[in-house]
Write a structure and sequence with these properties.
Length: 303
């Protein structure tokens, strides 16, 4: 009786405690890319739950039906070579599940790597996000401002993050807007996101990069387009300019709070030239055409 009440109390306690937990960030999407990924996660959880429930149900059935106490003492089980149907089910169903999830994953990968759905015709807000030990630098080339350890982005506009690193490989991740992507020292990787709802979100480095990795986080302020323009104007009026000396000081290992500057470090410390993942169909054609023209020009000069 005491054991029964103990387990009952444990269940009530766990249920009460869990009611106060906030939802997982990856399952609380605030943008189209994150919403697609959240659906895939829930789909995978659902399929795995069905498999686990069926397997445990069969296990309990077999343990009860074929338990030793139910058989007579002189019982000898028949010699069975195997069942083609059982083997087909045990092999076929996992193959079908893996095949289906593979198709869904490939489709989702193309979706989250391209411009967010519904924003294809809009000009994106370009932000260069560079990491150093252990901080994030966000450069807005169009607005000519730079922030440290925090982002301001508008709703209802595509976001194009161009990622690279001034130190070890980092991973740029805003769970409620989309999946993570690596920032490396010798190339730029491009991440397409968008935000549908206003609010303050959390971002972080999702890749271990040294002893200060745990505090390598940043905040994301999602505001209306009007508030974003007002913030840009305010920064230009109040913030100090970013100099090369100040930027070199910021790159020193350590933690910093949030900082704001006019100008960007792109002027005196340009990003890597190699750009990976930022070639759309037109860009690819133009790049090939330009390359062909250069080849033809070189060939003509040689003659």
């Amino acid at each position: 009786m005491k054991i029964k009440w103990f387990f009952f109390s444990m269940v009530i306690t766990i249920a009460t405690v869990l009611t106060g937990c906030e939802p997982l960030a990856v399952l609380d999407p605030k943008g189209p890319q994150a919403e697609r990924q959240a659906r895939d996660i829930l789909l995978s959880i659902g399929i795995m739950s069905v498999v686990v429930i069926v397997v445990f149900a069969l296990l309990i059935y077999m343990l009860v039906k074929y338990r030793a106490s139910k058989m007579p003492e002189d019982y000898e089980p028949p010699h069975i070579e195997g069942s083609k149907w059982v083997e087909a089910i045990c092999i076929g169903i996992p193959i079908l599940i893996v095949g289906y999830l593979s198709v869904v994953s490939v489709q989702s990968n193309y979706i989250v790597e391209s411009a967010p759905k519904g924003y294809e015709d809009q000009e994106p807000l370009v932000v260069y996000a560079s990491s150093s030990d252990w901080k994030w630098h966000f450069s807005y080339p169009e607005e000519d401002i730079e922030t440290v350890n925090y982002l301001y982005v508008p709703t209802d506009r595509p976001l194009e993050f161009r990622l690279y690193s001034y130190g070890p490989i980092s991973s740029f991740w805003i769970p409620q807007l989309g999946g993570q992507k690596y920032a490396m020292a010798d190339m730029i990787t491009t991440l397409h996101l968008a935000a549908d709802e206003q609010g303050e979100l959390m971002g972080r480095n999702a890749n271990f990069s040294g002893k200060g990795f745990a505090e390598n986080t940043f905040s994301v302020n999602v505001v209306s387009p009007k508030d974003f323009d007002e913030w840009v104007d305010e920064v230009k009026e109040t913030a100090k300019p970013l100099t090369k000396e100040k930027f070199d000081e910021l790159l020193e290992p350590g933690h910093l709070g949030q900082m704001t500057f006019t100008g960007t470090h792109l002027e005196f410390s340009p990003p890597p030239e190699h750009d990976h993942g930022n070639m759309d169909a037109d860009g690819g054609e133009n790049a090939h055409e330009e390359h062909d023209e250069q080849d033809n020009h070189s060939e003509h000069e040689s003659h």
